[in-house]
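Working notes for the structural subgroup meeting. M.R. asked for a predicted model of this chain before we commit to crystallization trials. I am recording the input and output together here so anyone reviewing the notebook later can reproduce the run.

Input as submitted:
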Amino acid sequence: LWSDTERDDSAFVLIDTAPAFMTTGAQAISAKKISPEKYFWLLGHRSVPIVSARPWEPGTYLPGGELAETYAAINKIYNRVISKMKRLRLTEEGKHTLWLDENNIPSVVWAFKETSMPFTGQCHDVLDKETHEIKGTMILKPGHVYELSPEK
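Returned structure, recorded in token form:
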């Protein structure tokens, strides 16, 4: 299932599920299995993998190991925008996901590859913490999440 999901760019089928990965002696949330980029891709589709951790036992580890802070930063972005991610709109070539709010208004974009999309209104780049007024075409940078306020 996982190799099919990666190959077919079909994380959308996992929406609101918590995929689990069977690993022997290795964490799923790691550079080798679910890299930070792949984790970002999954959260951009509202699919949060099960995370294992052993904070109180011998052999203590945090999810992501040395990359724990990188994964945590992605979680913080997700927690900020999840309340606005009600309806998923897939995009051609899977370069980004567009989320609508409860009123079917474009509200959040997760960018996986460099691309652009038509948009007019205010755009807040959650990663750069900058707000821009966009008129016509919005340039999306990979690894960025944008909160949208379309012009009415």
